[in-house]
Amino acid sequence: MSKLSNGIIYKIKKIMALSRCKVHENPQGRNGNEYVTNVEPINFPDTSSICGRNNCNNPGLIWLTKEEKKNYDDDKMRIFNFPNSATKVKVK
Predict the structure, then answer these.
(1) In DSSP terms, which residues pair with 65 in a beta bridge?
(2) pLDDT band, residue 3 (cuts 50/70/90)
């Protein structure tokens, strides 16, 4: 785990947050990931975070694993990467 310059963002190995809308909530994790809660991205529902399901363009909530939730609750993490590293998202 490494601390970045702003003091509250940490890089954790195997970050696997997902974006899913309220219609497609409660994602089933792959590779043993279990999603336990969701958080709102900045400016939700007027956000650039879009549901990751095919053919869905609804605003997406960010689903977190147990480890991510702990870091979020401890105010250590507010920026999350998605599994394919194509983008990352900042949450409230």
Answers:
(1) 35
(2) very low
pTM comes to 0.75
Report the sign of the C-alpha dihedral through residues 42, 46, 47, 51, in that order.
positive
Cis peptide bond N-terminal to 59, omega within 30:
no
Q: Are the CB atoms for 92 and 61 separated by under 8 Å?
A: no
Round to whole Å and give the CA distance between 76 and 51: 25
CA-based nearest residue to 90, from 8, 1, 3, 29: 8
Lookup: tokens for 6: 């702003």
Nearest to 38 by CA among 30, 46, 23: 23
Per residue in 15-64, pLDDT tens? 578 899 999 988 887 777 889 999 999 999 999 899 988 899 999 999 99
Looking at residue 55, the DSSP 8-state letter turns out to be T
